[in-house]
Write a structure and sequence with these properties.
single chain, mainly beta, 11 strands, 45% strand
Length: 128
């Protein structure tokens, strides 16, 4: 089992909600920015949302802003992605990733290549 494990994916109808979890039992999330990414068939991996460990600041892509919410429980070493008002175009494999920070000024909105650890991914399908 890798350092990050996603769960919570599945099939949901358009307009529905789903919550993804990213468990990191072997990492101290206080030392990492954590991001959620997604990749649809034939498309590049894109950033969905991320949260900075230094101040809890959050980033959302324009396509999910106002519909998705990222949160974390450092004590439980889990990061969540609450997804509401889901659309068919949200269908993708969702990945969480952790980026070790070296400064409180390290922002979380960095390209996927900057992230150090990745989960195995969880499929989210939005369809009627």
């Amino acid at each position: 089992q890798g350092p990050l494990v996603e769960s919570g994916g599945g099939l949901v109808q358009p307009g529905g909600s789903m919550r993804l979890s990213c468990a990191a039992p072997r990492l101290s999330l206080a030392a990492y920015n954590v991001g959620w990414f997604r990749q649809a068939p034939g498309k590049e991996r894109e950033t969905v949302s991320c949260i900075s460990t230094a101040d809890g600041s959050q980033y959302y892509s324009d396509s999910v802003k106002g519909r998705f919410n990222i949160s974390r429980d450092i004590a439980k070493s889990v990061v969540y992605l609450q997804m509401d008002s889901l659309k068919p175009e949200d269908t993708a494999v969702y990945y969480c990733a952790a980026d070790l920070i070296y400064s409180d000024r390290d922002i979380c909105n960095r390209p996927p290549s900057h992230y150090d650890y990745w989960g195995q991914g969880t499929q989210v399908t939005v369809s009627s």
